[in-house]
């Protein structure tokens, strides 16, 4: 337990910070469909494991960069939690795949835009952030992840083992949400609200970039498909007509159409 300066809020306030799931709660039927398939469930858990492991490395880097001793201890615990989450998700994913046996159906559609995991630090440059800016970003990221995990636990009624994994991870996510907000108020008592606003704008911008990238990918696929089915047949027809035209011409030497008198006055 982190002792000394008050590191976190009381449990009741911590749960109030997380909320009841936001828009993900309304999308529960879609989440239930996404998580119903065993192989897709395992693949998504492996993706969560990779994100958590990456977040753990970022938090270890944050612990190195901060000059605040209390934040350093909290960041180290946070990094340890993320590393443990990665192992929990990875272990459960491999257990699901092992129980399914050999499945040659290939990768499933992940629907990450419908059912994402925790975003981690979202490629944030930790060493360039102030303590207040990083805490604001952590607060929003951990709260969003905790809200999703609440919903995921509810829709996994047919898989109690995976639901238990989310319940174990959720306890840590609640603490991360809790301490990041409490420490933000300590570090920046007068401007903590503005830091949260700026962090939220940054997350909205990155969400826009992810959406734009996805739309660009879809548009690129549509355009390439149109080129294949519209333009390629035209060029194939033109090549075929050119080949027929050449086949009609006689092979070998062809008699010149120039007059004999002209040929005598020419070098060729």
Task: Name its key features.
mainly alpha, elongated, about 75% helix, about 270 residues, single chain, Ferritin, about 0% strand
Explain this structure to me?
The chain is mostly helical and 268 residues long. The chain has one domain (11-223): Ferritin. Helices cover 74% and strands 0% of the residues. It contains 9 helices and no strands. The protein has helices at residues 11-18, 22-26, 28-36, 38-65, 69-100, 131-155, 160-187, 192-248, 260-264. The longest helix has 57 residues, at 192-248. The mean pLDDT is 79.
What's the SSE blueprint?
Layout: H1 11-18, H2 22-26, H3 28-36, H4 38-65, H5 69-100, H6 131-155, H7 160-187, H8 192-248, H9 260-264
Helix pairs in contact: 1-7, 3-6, 4-5, 5-7, 6-7, 6-8
Summary of the model, kept short:
By secondary structure, this protein is mostly helical.
């Amino acid at each position: 337990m982190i002792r000394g300066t008050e590191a976190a809020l009381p449990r009741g306030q911590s749960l109030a910070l997380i909320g009841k799931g936001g828009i993900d709660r309304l999308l529960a039927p879609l989440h239930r469909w996404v998580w119903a398939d065993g192989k897709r469930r395992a693949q998504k858990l492996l993706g969560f494991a990779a994100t958590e492991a990456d977040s753990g490395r970022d938090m270890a880097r944050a612990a190195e960069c901060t000059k605040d001793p209390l934040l350093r201890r909290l960041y180290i615990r946070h990094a340890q939690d993320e590393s443990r989450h990665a192992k929990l998700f990875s272990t459960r994913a491999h257990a699901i795949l092992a129980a399914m046996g050999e499945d040659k159906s290939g990768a499933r559609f992940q629907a990450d835009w419908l059912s994402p995991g925790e975003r981690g630090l979202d490629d944030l440059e930790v060493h360039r952030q102030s303590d207040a800016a990083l805490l604001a970003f952590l607060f929003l990221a951990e709260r969003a992840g905790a809200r999703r995990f609440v919903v995921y636990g509810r829709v996994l009624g047919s898989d109690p083992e995976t639901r238990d994994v989310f319940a174990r991870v959720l306890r840590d996510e609640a603490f991360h949400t809790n301490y990041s907000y409490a420490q933000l108020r300590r570090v920046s008592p007068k401007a903590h609200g503005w830091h949260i606003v700026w962090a939220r704008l940054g997350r909205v911008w990155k969400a826009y970039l992810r959406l734009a990238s996805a739309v660009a990918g879809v548009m690129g696929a549509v355009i390439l498909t149109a080129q294949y089915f519209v333009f390629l047949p035209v060029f194939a027809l033109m090549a075929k007509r050119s080949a027929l035209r050449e086949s009609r011409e006689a092979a070998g030497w062809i008699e010149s159409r120039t007059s004999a008198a002209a040929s005598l006055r020419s070098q060729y």
